[in-house]
Amino acid sequence: xxxxxxxxxxxxxxxxxxxxxxxxxxxxxxxxxxxxxxxxxxxxxxxxxxxxxxxxxxxxxxxxxxxxxxxxxxxxxxxxxxxxxxxxxxxxxxxxxxxxxxxxxxxxxxxxxxxxxxxxxxxxxxxxxxxxxxxxxxxxxxxxxxxxxxxxxxxxxxxxxxxxxxxxxxxxxxxxxxxxxxxxxxxxxxxxxxxxxxxxxxxxxxxxxxxxxxxxxxxxxxxxxxxxxxxxxxxxxxxxxxxxxxxxxxxxxxxxxxxxxxxxxxxxxxxxxxxxxxxxxxxxxxxxxxxxxxxxxxxxxxxx
Amino acid sequence: xxxxxxxxxxxxxxxxxxxxxxxxxxxxxxxxxxxxxxxxxxxxxxxxxxxxxxxxxxxxxxxxxxxxxxxxxxxxxxxxxxxxxxxxxxxxxxxxxxxxxxxxxxxxxxxxxxxxxxxxxxxxxxxxxxxxxxxxxxxxxxxxxxxxxxxxxxxxxxxxxxxxxxxxxxxxxxxxxxxxxxxxxxxxxxxxxxxxxxxxxxxxxxxxxxxxxxxxxxxxxxxxxxxxxxxxxxxxxxxx
Lengths: 304, 240
Hints:
The structure holds two protein chains of two kinds. By secondary structure, chain A is of the alpha+beta class. Chain A has helices spanning 3-20, 22-57, 72-83, 96-107, 110-114, 136-147, 160-201, 203-211, 216-259, 271-297; strands at residues 62-66, 88-94, 124-129, 152-157.
C-alpha cells in the first residue's frame, strides 16, 4: 500500500468520523469560524482604509520655493533633476508670473495685486511623491534633499496628517495582528481539545489498533487529518460569514462615506487571501491536533 | 536439520507490578521454552500469572528482570519504535474478543493487515480466507454485536491469524463459551498449530486442557509448578 493510499484512507476515515457526528462537528466548526471571521472582517476594514488612504497619499505634495534671483531656466533644470529621483511621481514647474496670475484670480485681491510694481512671488515647484513613497519618512527624506539646493529658499511639506494617518493605520494593523494571534491560539486550543475528547472516546479502538501492531503514526494520522479538516471547514464557513457581513454592510457604509464626500468601500477578499485563510486555518488545525494527539495518544497503551 | 531455536523462551523472568507505593510480584524466576509450531496450555488458578506471561510475550509489558525471547528477539530491550512491527508477528485472542463494535466483521479482521500497509487486494483475499477458515465468510458485512458470543470469538481468532503470524497467544479464549463451542475453538487452534503456528493458550478449563493431551505449563503464584518436557531444546545458556 503506497503512501498516497495510506493518507487517502486516513483522510476518508477522518471525514467519515466528522460526518458521523454532525452536531459536534458543526459546533466545533462554528466556533472556529467565529474566531476567524472577527480578524478577517477587521483585516478587510484595515485593507480598505489603507486602500483609501493610499489615494489620499497621492494628493500629498511638497512645495519648493526658490530664491527670487533664481532664473526660470535654472528652476526647469533642477525640476528635470528631481524627476529622475526614485519615489517622485510628478514635478510641476510654477513660474512666478503664472503663480501671480493664479493668485490674482483665486484670492479675491486682484486689484491689490495690480497695484504691485513687481511680482513678489518666486518661481516654485510642486513635487508629488510616488504612491509607494508617500510615507512620512519618505516625504521627510525628499524634503531634506530639496532643502540642500542652494537656490531654494523654502520647502513646505504638510506631512503631519499623513503621519497621523499612518500611525492610526499602524495601530490598527498591530491590533489586527494581536487579535489574529490570540484567536489563532484559540483555534489551536479548540481543535486540540476536540481531538483530545475524540481520543478519549476512541480509547478502546486505539488500544486494539496498537495491540494488532498499529504504529503511533498510523493511529495519529486520522486525528491530524481531522484537525486540518476542522480548521479548513471553519475557515470556509468564516469566509462565507465574512462575505455575508461585507454584503450587508456595503450599502450603509457606502452611504455614510458618501455623506463625507468619500468613495470608501469595503474591499472583497482576493482569491490568494481566501487561500491563505483556508491554508492557515488548516495548518492551525493540524498543529492543534498534532499537539493534542502527541500528548494524549502516549497515555493510551494497549492492555490485555 | 530441525530448527531448535525456541519460539518463546522465558529465562529467569521476574515481573513486578507497581501501583503507587505498593507493588506485587506477578512472576518469579520463571523459565520455560516453547518450540516453534508447538501448542501449549498455560494453566493455573486466577492470579497465578498466566495473563502476565501472555502480556510479556505480546510486549504489552516488559520483564522487571530476566529475559523474554520471542522468535529470537529479546523483548526487554526492543526499542519502542520496533514494538508495532513486533506485535504484528504475534496474533492475540482475548476472552472478551476486543472487537471494534462500530466496524464490520470484515474491517475488524482486516485491521492487522491495514496497519501493516498490506495492498488492498491482498487484504481482501486474506480476510476472506481467514473468515472462511473460522466459518464466518457469510457474515462478512455484519457488525460484531449482531453475532453470537461464539461467532465473535471466531472473528477474534480470524483477526489474530489473518496476517499469518508465527505465534498465536490466547487468553482464556473459551472463558465465555459453552463446551461445544470451546471444543470448536480448540480445534481451530490445533489446525493452526498443525501448519506451523506456535499456539499458547492460557486457560483454567482443565477438562479441555486434559482432553487435548497437549503440554501444560502450570503456574502457581507466579512460579513454574510443572511442565511436561516436549522438545529437546538446547540449554538456555547456549543460545544467548
